[in-house]
Amino acid sequence: MSKTRVAIVHDWLNQIGGAEDVLDVMMNMYPGSTLYTTMYSPEKMPAHYQDWDIRTTWMDKLPGIYNKHQLYLPLYPYGFNHTVENADVILTNKSGFCIGIPKPKGVQHVCYCLTPSRYVFDLGGYLARERMPAAVNVALAPWANAMKRWERKAAQEVDHFIAISKAIQARIKKHYDRDSVIIYPPVETERFVPMSNPQDYFLVVSRLIPYKRIDLAVEACSKLGIPLKVAGSGRDRERLESLAGPSVEFLGFVPDEDLPRLMAECKAFLFPGLEDFGITPVQAMAAGRPVIAFNGGGAPDYVLPGLSGQLFETQSVDCLMDALSNFVVDDYDTVAIRQHALKFDRSIFEQQLSDYIDSISN
User: Fold this and answer.
1) 224 and 335: one domain?
2) Per the confidence metrics, is the pTM higher than 0.85?
3) Domain count, the chain
4) φ, ψ for residue 282 (rounded to 5)?
């Protein structure tokens, strides 16, 4: 076990997503570490979080922050005013502003960068994906410009950057002018195993929110009349159902224990959104299933044409329809796909991150 004392920093604790999956692994790697954050809503987070030493700031007392933390975005650069104690390394799990945490003398700051803040560096795209009026973009532009300056300055205080994909590595270089290494996020591949008789349906597993672009899969499969199962819930479900033909089935929330079979039995997994990495496609690959994904974000790091799936070039219904029409399931080898997915296993992440932190702290 590493003797390096690690303090872990996370932006906010009021929702569960991929960032929190990474956080869970980090806290398991460094048991007893203090977790620094802006606010923590115990009722919204897993029960075992209550066993952690969690330090919040004054932001935790702001009215309504647990339910509408986005309303307080302008305050977050001032929210990380903790005094980090008893640490050799600060490890920030960053999607927002936590890289601004003060660094004590002699302490190394390692940023595991999920992304430079997208509502800062891609405000227009973020608001468009959330279907906000164009006037909101104009009103927030001065704030975004100020935050760009703040975040670039904060990034210069980080000693080492780790990116989760080649796309994020490029963004770190573009927005911060900093180099980084890549350590892919942890995937629980052992939960997913191939099955001998896949069924005749394509699969989406996702939160149903606009920027995930599930509408592309729904419309493409509806127009082609091919079976699609959509697992997940969210505010976009009603709109998606209005776009769907009879070949599309909405499953709603699917419990974790039911996902492995659902993935192992699909013909292929569809991933039409632009994501910084994407855990669910790798889970499907661990179950031996090929992935049809948009050629952007993190997907090209693991969807290798001819081996683990195919990529389509534009986020359009027509382009996805072409990909689906040209897809031949027998072109893919189940065992080879799973072996490829194992390169992204949690154990690989833990070993690479532990070795990296030990190397810079010795």
Assistant:
1) yes
2) yes
3) 2
4) -70, -35
> Is residue 1 in a domain?
no
CATH label of the domain that carries residue 49: 3.40.50.2000
Cβ atoms within 10 Å, residue 252: 10
| Structure token digits, residue 306 | 């001819």
Q: Are residues 232 and 99 in the same domain?
A: no
Measured CA to CA, the distance from residue 221 to residue 292 in angstroms comes to 13
312-326 per-residue burial string, b: 16 or more CB within 10 A, e: under 16: beebbbebbbebbee
For residues 100 and 120, the answer to whether their CB atoms sit within 8 Å is no
Q: How wide is the angle at C-alpha 12 spanned by C-alphas 353 and 80, nearest 5°? A: 85
Token pair 């996020």: residue: 185
> 317 is written with which tokens?
């219904």
Residues 172 and 210 in one domain: no
- Quote the domain boundaries for residue 150: 6-186+346-361
Buried b (16+ CB within 10 A) or exposed e, 264-298: bbbbbbbbbbbbbbbbbbbbbbbbbbbbbbbbbbb
Residue 241: both structure tokens together:
């159902």
Residue 323's nearest CA partner among 263, 265, 272 is 272
pLDDT tens-digit map of 232-281: 999 899 999 999 999 999 999 999 999 999 999 999 999 999 999 999 99
The beta-strand segments (E) located in the chain are: 6-10, 34-36, 53-55, 89-94, 108-113, 160-163, 181-182, 202-205, 228-231, 248-252, 268-271, 291-294, 309-312
210 with 315, same domain: the answer is yes
Asked, for residue 174, whether it belongs to a domain, the answer is yes
